[in-house]
Amino acid sequence: MLGGAPATTVQLPATFFLLLLLITTTNCSNLPSLTVAEFASLQVSPSLVVEKSPGSRPGSPVVCERVEINGLSRLTNLTSFFSSVKLNVLNVNSTGRPPNITVCFHRNASLGVGMCPEDQWEKLTKGSWVKSMSPFDHKLLDIRIVGPSVGTAEVVLNEEFYVYRVIFLVLGVALLTFASSLSNSLIVYYGGAMTLGVMLVVLVILFQGMRILPSGRKSSLALVLYGSIVGVGSFLFSYVPTLLRSLLVEMGIGEDLYSPLAVFLVAFVALTGAWLGFWAVRRLVLTEDGSIDTGVAQFVKWSFRIVASSMILQSSVDPLLAVAALVFGVLIPSAVKGLYSYAHKILFATNKGKHTRSYQRVSSPVEDSYEDKLKTHKLSEANTFYSSFHDTTERRQYSKDEWDEFTKESTKKALESLVCSPDFNRWAVAHADRITLLPKKDAKQRGKSWLPWS
I need a surface site. Which of 30, 160, 210, 323 has the fewest CB within 10 A? Predict the structure, then answer.
């Protein structure tokens, strides 16, 4: 009897816990629910009386209802990566005074029905309330009606696909992959600078031209800001012809000269903007020897990567999938670099094998022993070097290290003989103003990269 008492005491809390869990599960399963789909709707008539609901007047009747919104599985519904769900709550009462309906959209299942904080309740505007959510998210919607009137609300789910998110993902991954190559390309710098130069010249001409018109300086500045921020292209194509006609009329030029002047003006603007961009690149980007400045290239490279990361994160409304896409985009450059290095090694080994087989000859034991003796001597000990390509008896094969050492020593001796010659000394004295020493470009002087593909 004494030994059985502790077992009964342990079993009671466990049974109570299981019973409480069963009750909670049963209550949650009784909630009206909606599952994300292309289109889904549900009509709800709140009937649960809630006392002391935050934000409600004391003593006023409050009825609430909770709707469970079930999202999709991420692994099995990756086609909804670029989609978002619009949740719409509508007042379907057609007659009588519209009820005072407020909603609370949250994911805190521990809150009681209708017990959201006061600042989280939102009213229906003109009988409607719209909110966007991820198609993979699971949330709760509390609907509350304050006052004696009774109403019915309709909850509508509509999944929408956005093409611009696909473009963001493709452009982001491509820009992240080729950021290093683009930052070292002169075409990118010249093209971008010339485009910005043309736009700058156009805006300056518009601003100066609109100052002449009776519209005044204030309205012209606002118009220029609108055109440069909201929609440069649409604004220019719609407003520039009217502006040019007004300017030509003010100067007393006839309509027969409109087309030639327009052509010359467009050519002038394009050439001026292109020259401005060209000058900016030559002045700010390139060094004295014509190469791209290392600091500018690093800044542009990381700017590309930041912009690309932002585009990838904006490709999906779901934060987990957006971060996963960003990680995938970061790993792509490493994979591309590894595949390129592997293919380059295979191609180099194949070409080297073909080159070796094309010059391979049949040698006798005497010749082999002679070549072995030659390999014991350093290449720089004799001034006679036998051909490594022609089929001669003195032919031998060099290893990569031997060939590099031979090249270095031969170049050093040739430079020493050149410097010691009287002709070179006379030439150096006569052209001393043309001799400059550039800083040595060493890979060790570059900053260490944080990532293997940077």
Answer: 30
